[in-house]
Specification:
Largest interface: A-B, 34 and 37 residues
Strand content of chain A: 15-25%
Oligomer: heterodimer
Number of helices of chain A: 6
Radius of gyration of chain A: 22 Å
Radius of gyration of chain B: 18 Å
Number of helices of chain B: 7
Largest sheet of chain A: 5 strands, parallel
Helix content of chain A: 40-55%
Number of strands of chain A: 7
Order of helices and strands of chain A: HEHEHEEHEHEHE
Strand content of chain B: under 5%
CATH class of the largest domain in chain A: Alpha Beta
Shape of chain B: elongated
Distance between the termini of chain B: 42 Å
Distance between the termini of chain A: 61 Å
Strand order of the largest sheet of chain A: 1-6-5-2-4
Chain lengths: 157, 160
């Protein structure tokens, strides 16, 4: 009991010091909580800076028009188990080695990035990388493979 | 168990490991609180305003606790805090796994490509909880700054 009381007192002090250091440091360096809003980005092509999220219906509509390239951000293993028909696999982990798969795709072609489904962040991270590399029309199909599969849309292994 | 808790070399070894681990892992988060806030937010457990506050304070708490464990000052308080933090992190990881979130941990590195959370992470964290609890209940002051200060001051005064 004495140990616990002792520990709680020490913990309180540590917590206070950590909070003070944290707030002072982030305020001084203007990071995190104190970060200044980033200046609005304008890409050379005048396209909005952030990739757009699209629903399954929108992804399906794009798929049917054939104007979009679908890029799968998941690992090779998941890709081989099944993916949107015709999609190119560029795992987020191996982006730099694998991005050449898009070398034949023009920079303003619509690219739809997706990964596992509702809670996967790789498609977002991938689309940010794609936009950095100059692709102007990147969309994120956030529902991803799980929504696509659930709707029985064209797939292949 | 009692003898293990009193074994100065074992306690020192655990202190070095836990101390260095938390110091190293806190640095990257301190340098980039925004990325850490993103990692916390990706667990989707907290109201939107909270992650950025946690990202401001938690890395410094890890750093302080790391140094405190390493040097053996405030050891009870810091090992208590580390156990508590690890417990909360582990519950968050389990909650994320159960809900099927495909996210990276944000534990020791903010690199999103470092790997996703999994049950291995839970096992890893559980081991760390056992180690920090071990420190909390340990009874030896050998090789600590406290002991060093306590012993060095009176001795010096006596010798004069």
């Amino acid at each position: 009991m004495i140990r616990l009381r002792h520990a709680l007192r020490e913990a309180g002090i540590l917590l206070l010091v950590a909070a003070a250091l944290g707030f002072i440091y982030t305020a001084a360096t203007e990071k995190g909580l104190f970060a200044r809003p980033a200046p609005s980005k304008t890409t050379p092509r005048g396209v909005a800076g952030d990739p757009t999220m699209i629903s399954r219906d929108e992804a399906w509509a794009l798929y049917q028009t054939g104007i979009a390239v679908f890029v799968d951000a998941r690992h090779d293993f998941d890709f081989k188990l099944g993916h949107i028909k015709g999609a190119i696999n560029i795992p987020l982990k191996g982006y730099d080695e694998r991005k050449s798969a898009l070398s034949g795709v023009s920079m303003d072609r619509v690219i739809v990035a997706y990964c596992d489904g509702a809670e996967c962040n790789s498609s977002i991270e991938l689309s940010v990388k794609l936009m950095k590399d100059g692709h102007a029309n990147v969309r994120i199909f956030f529902g991803g493979w799980s929504e696509w599969k659930a709707a029985n849309l064209p797939a292949e292994q | 168990m009692k003898t293990l808790l009193n074994n100065p070399h074992l306690v020192l070894l655990v202190r070095l490991f836990i101390g260095l681990l938390f110091i190293v892992s806190s640095l990257e988060k301190i340098v980039d609180p925004a990325a850490f806030a993103q990692s916390i937010a990706s667990y989707k457990l907290l109201p939107t305003w909270l992650p950025v506050i946690l990202a401001t304070v938690l890395p410094w708490l890890e750093l302080l606790c790391g140094f405190s464990v390493l040097f053996g000052a405030f050891t009870h308080g810091s090992s208590f805090l580390l156990s508590a933090m690890l417990l909360v992190f582990t519950v968050a990881v389990i909650a994320a796994l159960v809900r099927g979130l495909d996210i990276s941990c944000g534990c020791f590195t903010q690199d999103p490509t470092a790997g996703k959370i999994g049950w291995m992470k839970v096992l890893q964290n559980t081991t760390l909880i056992v180690l920090t609890l071990f420190l909390y209940f340990s009874n030896t002051e050998s090789f600590t700054l406290l002991r060093y200060l306590r012993e060095s001051t009176p001795l010096n005064e006596q010798s004069r």
